[in-house]
Amino acid sequence: MAKSAPLPGTSDIFPGEVGAWRFLEETARGVFNCYNYGELRTPIFEATEVFQRGLGDETEVVQKEMYTFEDRGGRSVTLRPEGTAGVMRALLNTDVLNGVEQRVFYIGPMFRGERPAAGRRRQFHQIGAENVGRIAPELDAEAIAMLLGLLEKLGISGSTLKLNTRGVAADRPAAAAALKEYFSKHIDILCEDCRKRLQGNVWRILDCKVESCREIIANVPDYAGMFSAESREYFQKVCRHLDWLGIKYEIDPFLVRGLDYYVHTVFEITHPGLGAQNAIAGGGRYELLLPGESKPVIGVGFAAGMERLLMVREALNLPANGDMEENRCVFVAALGEAAEEFKVKFTAELRNQGIAAAAEIAGKSLKAQMRAANRVNAACAVIVGEEELAGNTAVLRDLTGGEQKQVALNELIGEIKKLINKQ
């Protein structure tokens, strides 16, 4: 590893790249606000039991991928591997357990000890949303519609929505028994991980990506047909609401998602622009039991990987910053000692009025100062020397078109605003 490189699976995000991230964040805030969601910010680490209890001890996230350590008080704490459990822990301070609806979204880093690959990092970032407190098929459909609305606003086309049902806890023993019976007949062909899953969490086999396992999975029995009539009807209502909204989807019986808290609806959105690791977002309805609680938190939500959204936008040749205006600055160039004082004062005045401004250190030639203006991608330059000051004027140069003119000092800021707005 080079001395200056970040740790594997992490990355530095430099100023020239941040605009693309801000575009994702601001677009998400705009879409979510239209659905009456408010932003919630939770700590990036929690008591380990929040994730163990919430996500399930048998999940691969809990077993293999969490960054867990002991703090100074001897408590086991974990960097959040996903957003939902921490959000639910926070919402226990509201009336969600009494059926009072809460609509929240979050944006931030997550941490998993996975092998780094394209679109898969150890510190990654997610945009997520949770509708908590109530259960209804139309809320599931609305969450999906909101996620697709976000992708549309981001300019992402060509994605595929996959949909399935997990039923409820009471549905699963018979279905799990049928799956175990089926996979037990093929145990010699299953990969090592799936042999362990057969005894621990048979549902995770359906999510295996090993080719030999995929061939066996393709012929699993219709486990959803063993679910109760109420569960099947719930899923049918979700599909009907999506049909009313004109949303296209594929029902994928192998889609189970990787976490134990899901019930009823699960969904995932894929895009060919990502290659093999093609999921850009996913979620579903859940019942999540947190430490110290006897009653689960119910809700529906999703999360989208920000790195993956950026990769898809790049594959679609979309502008990195979307339609956000670039914050180009005004460069103030001074020639002579008297002009230096003007430069310092005028640069401060521009910034006080909300106009980005830059300048070189004293004593540089005009040529060197103009090179500095190009480095910061300035929109225009204000050039002042002793002759200009004597006449209470300055030269205003358009660095995009190249034109320049003499402007009275008392009209300079107004002319700068006109020039920037015109560009």
Layout of SSEs?
Elements lengths: L14 H20 L3 E2 L5 E3 H8 L4 H6 L2 E3 L5 E4 L4 H8 L10 E10 L11 E10 L4 H17 L6 E6 L6 H13 L7 H9 L10 H7 L11 H16 L5 E2 L10 E9 L8 E10 L8 E9 H10 L14 E6 L1 H16 L4 E3 L6 H10 L4 E6 H5 L2 E6 L5 E5 L3 H11 L1
Parallel strand pairs: 1-5, 7-8, 12-13, 12-14
Antiparallel strand pairs: 2-4, 3-4, 5-6, 6-11, 7-9, 9-10, 10-11, 14-15, 15-16
Helix pairs in contact: 1-5, 5-9
Provide an overview of this structure.
The protein is α+β, with helices and mostly antiparallel strands. Helix content is 37%, strand content 22%. The protein is built from 14 helices and 16 strands. An 8-stranded mixed sheet has the order 1-5-6-11-10-9-7-8, sandwiched between helices. A 5-stranded mixed sheet has the order 13-12-14-15-16, with helices on both faces. Strand 3 and strand 4 form a beta hairpin.
Structural class from helices and strands?
A: alpha+beta
Strand tally, please? 16
- Low-confidence runs: none
Order of adjacent strands in the largest pleated sheet = 1-5-6-11-10-9-7-8
Count of DSSP-assigned helices: 14
Radius of gyration (Å): 28 Å
* Straight-line N-to-C gap: 43 Å
Average residue-wise pLDDT = 91
Largest sheet: 8 strands, mixed
Approximate strand percentage: 15-25%
Order of helices and strands: HEEHHEEHEEHEHHHHEEEEHEHEHEHEEH
- What is the 3D shape? elongated
